[in-house]
Every structure is written in structure tokens, then in C-alpha cells.
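sanity check this fold:
=====
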Amino acid sequence: MPKKLVLIGGGHSHALVLRLLGNKPLSGVRLALITPDIYTPYSGMLPGHIAGFYSYSQCHIDLQSLSNFAHAQLCLDHVIGLDLNNKKVLCANQPAVDFDILSIDIGSTPSKLSVPGAAEYTIAAKPVAQFLEHWYKLQENAVKNPQKSLNIAIVGGGAGGVELALSMVAGLRKSEVHLFQSSQELMPSHHQLVRRIMRDILINKDVKLHLGERVCEVVELINKRLAIKCESGLMVTCDYAFWVTQASAASWLKAAGIGTDDQGFILVNDYLQSVTHPHIFAAGDIAKMINYELPKAGVFAVRQGKPLYENLRRMISGASLKPYKPQTTYLSLIGTGDGRALANRGNLTLPPHQLWWCWKDLIDRNFMEQFPHQ
């Protein structure tokens, strides 16, 4: 009987696993990918897409072509749960999928359940497919009403919120962008010089910064506009509000009984293997390594692709697994929405320049070139 390897989610790690499986197929294995979308976004190029530098196809991986290349069955569906006793993946619209070995790479979504009105009236940055639907409609409205200036609120001043603000300023001709951050510092997980440079750029581009402001409610007004209310009493009205706060995990994971941390992220060891279920692996944002403190960054999802493939291959063949050791410092190239990028690695920070954008563009295009196109 062939072993059944099932991948849930089309994230960066799984895209790389599928490419490697296509290059070097495993014998005696039935492979399936379960994901809600045919196209999966590459996070490194999404801000550039919002700013107008890349088309949709340039920043999305075609999972149908990739599955064909890897001889994998593609199941387009939402996963709603796991039956771990019977080794089944429960789907929203089709029969359960059996597995012997399971790998999960579904990313994360911004958490907004604790703020009244946020779930109803704001647009989450993830899942990206839904976010882009709203973004394209917003762009259409801007084209239809060229004289009208749009007021946009972005809640969350981490790297994602800052890049989104700069990309939207570039992608919309007439707009006023408000960026809310609960702490006094933007991008708190980044180097101090990076934070200072990015703050100055935002101010120079007329982004209205609301630092130390914790959003406590989002209200829809009579004219369909929104009011963003803060604990301090500050209230800002806007046409659209985007939510780019701390990451949260899919609720069905914890309900399934797999070992997770308090936030619901899958606890994995150095082999990217569940600490409670050895036949289950996880990578990318949804995984929480117990021996390393990793930020939710695409660079780690990309780096985990090959070690994940190696350990899935070894698990199938019965060989001993190999540990993955994440890098302690990594190159961060942050686009500023204007054809420049800031470069940072550890304590070294280079201010925004066209050269760093060209470097980032080359890295991103080379990454996308690995995958088959229709």
C-alpha cells in the first residue's frame, strides 16, 4: 500500500516541498495538497504589487501547475478540522482525506476578535486573496472618483503595517493614510535605526502616525464611513480600515488536539515535527519551534522548505530525521513603495536606495522563477 502524504496549505514551505518532490519524486507515495486557492501569494512581492510594481501573476505561485509537476492531487477546499484518531483531514465541501503523514503550512491571520466592530468592518491583511479583492475594489472606486481623496486607516504598526502604508501611498494617487500603533515605537521587533528611518519616511510621505494609540472600537457611521476609536479618546473617520495586527492561528488546530502554544500555533521540535504527534509536521507562520524564538517572517518559511522536504522524505523511508537550525541573523530588505528599499542585517542598516530595491527585486524574481507557470 502506498503511503499517503497530505499537505495542508500552499504556503512558501509547501511550495518548495512540491517543487523538490517534482524534481525528485518519492516512490510508493500518494501525494495530496489541500488549499482553498489555486494561486498562493509570495509575501516578498505583495507590497510591490500594491504599489504597482508587479502584476498579480508575477507575485503568485500557480498551485495547479506546481501540483501537476509534483504529481500531487490538488483539493481546493477549506480544512475545518482533523480526526487524529483515524488520521483524516476534515474538509468543508468534500469527503475527509486520509493521511499517513501530514504537513501543515497555512500561515496566520491578524487577530481582531477582541476589538468590537473590527471583525465586521475592517479588512484583514490575511488571507491575502480576500484582502486583494477589497484592494482591487478600492482601486476601482478611486479611478471612478479621481477627485475624491480616500481616507484609509491601517491598524498595526509592525513591518507589515508600515510596508502596507507606504505601498498604498504609492498605489493610490489621492489618499490620506492613518497608521495606528499601540506602542510608542513602530516595528518594535526591528533594529532601532530601522525604526527611526522608516518613521521619518512615513512622516515625509504624509502618513498620519498615531503612536501609543490602542484601537478599542470600530464603528460604522450613517454615511457608511468608519470611525476608529482609541482608548485615549482619539477618534479618526475613514473610508476603509485595514487590520495588520499580531498574528493568530486557525481555531480548528487547537480543537483537533494537536499540541499548540497559548496562541494556537503548532509546537514543533527541531525536525519541524509536532511535539505531540510525530507523524505531523508544520512550517512557516503556523509553526512554533520550541527551541527557537522566531519572528513571523517569510524568510523563515522559505528556509524551512528544504529541511521540511528532507524530513518528510526520511519519515516515509524510515530514516532518522535531520534537525533544522534557523539562522540567528538574516538579511531584511524593506521596500519603501517608491522604487527604493532599506537593507538591514543584525546591527548593520543601510538607508533606502534604488540599489537595494534592485537587489530585493532580483532575489524575489529568482525565487518565483523556481516554480512552473501555466
